[in-house]
Design brief:
The chain is of the alpha+beta class and about 475 residues long. Helix content is about 40%, strand content about 20%.
Length: about 475
Amino acid sequence: MNTPLRRVSVGFMLLFFALLANITYVQAFQADELNARQDNRRVVLDEYSRERGPIIVADTPVARSVSTEDEFEYLRQYPEGPLYAHATGYYSFLFGRAAIERAENDVLAGTDDRLFVRRLVDLVTGREPRGGSVKLTLDPTAQGAAYDGLGDRKGAVVALDTTTGAILAMASTPTYDPNPLASHSLDEQQAAWDSLTTDPNRPMLNRAIAQTLPPGSVFKVVTSAAALESGRYTPETVVPGPAEYDLPQSTRTLPNQSGQPCGPGGETTLANALRISCNTAFAYIGNDLGDEALREQAERFGYNSQPLPEMNAATSVFPDELDEPQTALAAIGQFDVRATPLEIAMTSAAVANRGVLMRPYVVEEILGPDLAVIDQTQPSELSQAVSAETARDLTAMMVDVVENGTGGNAAIPGVPVAGKTGTAQSAPDRPPYAWFTSFAPADDPRVAVAVVIEETGENTDISGGRLAAPVARAVMEAVLGS
């Protein structure tokens, strides 16, 4: 063989081994990654050829697959449509998956490693493979109360089991119907997608967990916790509460919403400052404690870390390196402090749970095609947010807010309720956000709730006590009555 032919042969051999190495790498090391890509149509078509498992709330499927006679074989249906859309998400040939349909796709599609034995049995017996089921923690009564309470207003509700962290309600309005996105008509899918993604109200946004807003006065629970944890304050500690607080290093002042002092001589107690939501008292406390103490306390409640990553929840933020004016504003939940309704509910749940913050979760159980339980979420602690003594003092202070202060609209006859109102300023050209957070029964807590209303769609005064508290009350009553 002459030299040119030998060089060509060596070149072809190198190309062959490179091709073999590439195929081996793709099949052995990239297989899982490629199979998980939502734009992998081969995988999607394979999934459509078998029955996808249901998503269940209580004992009712809120997402299910039914057989068809077209090329896709199974059609995904959402019987409750908009009610659970932000929890279930959608399963679409063109646009992939979202929420639980995405997070638990391997189980629902039947490809999860925990279903290997079932797949093997199906192969041996010749039975058509099926996906597993995902049971959610949502309480249908609480979920319905949350949506009914929000109505046509833009906002969100989260309710948590205080002792486990299980999410009992997760409502976001406006919402959407996932059924058209699952249609076997690709034109219908595209039309639905175009309509939803161009809607300025962003109905596909899960405002309960995926959007952060200024928390306003509901953050005063965190500031109160930091004050009590410092050892320098008790609920009866007297603090300045003038009509206006002179922001340090600035010519600006921070007023109380009422324009009046918070007590005789411009002084008040910490407990009364929370009861009447005194801005100037909490601005003073924020500067007295310093931004580092506020940040550390906020982080023990879950700020600056992502909860519920499987659902792409947003991270609530307490900012770094604040000067004194910024610290004063941050202490009342303004400046660059941002929180999700989930985070605000987590804060109340930690206070209710003797200071222990539980990890939030929305998947209760993973079931096989035969409905046998193959995995179950075990509640776990995230942090000791505050001491049991501080939690007890905060509970008493928050009960006073409902019984004698700004949270009266959350009161439930015969049931002690702990709560805090909030009205958070946003952009100058838009109304403030109305917040409310609470837990009940205050003496034996079962449920913690956070409500935010961004817009009412009407010309009305927006306040947390007037608009958000009644929604929280309805959700608490739904949980306690179930």
